[in-house]
Amino acid sequence: MNNYNTKTTMLLKLSIVTLIGILGTEAFLFWSPSAQQFNTKFNLYTRRNPVLEQSIIHPDGKGNLTNFNNSLVTKFVMHGWDAPQGLGLSLESIKNEWLNAGDYNVFIVDWSQGNRLLSYDQSKSRLDLNKVHIVGHSLGAHIAGLTGKAFNGRIGRITGLDPAGPGFNGKPSTEKLSPSDAQFVDAIHTDAVPLIGLGIAENSGHVDFYPNGGNLHQPGCYINRITEVVDNGLSAAVACNHLRAYDYYVASINTNNPKGVATQCSNFVSYLANWCNVDAMDNNVAHAIMGEQAILSKPYANSTIGHKYYLTTTISYPYFRG
C-alpha cells in the first residue's frame, strides 16, 4: 500500500502540472521530480481530424496542434492509475460520441508510458477556462479535481467517472475531487463499496449519481469477487463495475438514446421502494440526468449538492430506461 500511495502521489503531481501547462496562462511551466518520471501525451481530435490525432508529448512540448480552435469548447478525458486492457476503446468511444454530438476540441490524455515531464509552451492555445470540460476516471477524477483547485474553481466543468476510493476515502476536500474544483462538478459512482470497491463512497460533486446503488451490483457485472480474485487476479474482479461508469457516460452523449433520469433519495433501498418524497421538492432538484446532460442541473447546484441521485440501468447499451 505504501508503494501504491507513493506512486499515486507522484502521478498526481506530474499530471496536475501537465494539465496546468495545457490550461494555464503562463508560457512555460517546469517541474522536475526526483523520483521516477512519467511522460504525458495529449492527443487532440477535432471534426477536422476525428481519427488521426495531433499530439503534444512531454517533456519537450513538441507536437502539432494546428487543428486546435480556441473558440470551441475543449474537452479532456483521462484514465486512472492502472488502465486495464481495452480501456482505450472506452476513451475512443467517448471521443467519437463527443465529435458526433458537437464541434469540440477533444483531448485524450495518456500517461500510461513515458519518461519525464519538464515543460510545455502553452502560449498559443490560451484556453477559455469557462469552455473547458475535464472527464477523469478513477485516479484521473482526482487529478482533474486538483487541477481545478489550481485554477480556483474557474474551469467550466469536471466529471468524475467512479472517482478512486483507496487513498481518498475520508480525506479532506483539498486532497480529492470536490464541488469547489469547477463551476460545475458531477460524478458517477459505480464501484463505491467500502473496503473492497475501487470507487469512492463519498459524494464528490454538485450532483452525485449512484446507478444501481453505486455498488458492486452493476447489471452485467455479476461476479463472485473472491473466486475471481483467486482465479484471475484483482483487476479482473473489479474492472467491470469500476469501468461501467465509462459505458454509462458514452451512452449518455448520444441524444437519441433514452436519458438516465435519476431521483434524489436518502438511499437506494428507499429509491426502490419509491420512498423518496420527491413531491416535496422542486422537480429540477428532485431529478437529474446522469452523464453528459447532468450540466442541466447547474442552475440548481446549491440545492443538489450533498445529496445522492439514484437510478437503475439495463445490462447492455444504451443502459438507460428513459
TrEMBL record:
Question: Mind telling me which residue stretches traverse the membrane in this protein?
Answer: 12-31
- Listed GO cellular component terms? extracellular space
Keywords noted in UniProt: Membrane, Secreted, Transmembrane, Transmembrane helix
Compartment(s): Secreted
Extract one GO BP annotation from the record.
lipid catabolic process
Mind telling me which Gene3D superfamilies this protein's record contains?
alpha/beta hydrolase
Lipase domain: which residues? 34-116, 125-319
Molecular function terms from GO: lipase activity
Annotated family:
Belongs to the AB hydrolase superfamily. Lipase family.
This protein's name:
Lipase domain-containing protein
**Source organism per UniProt:** Medioppia subpectinata
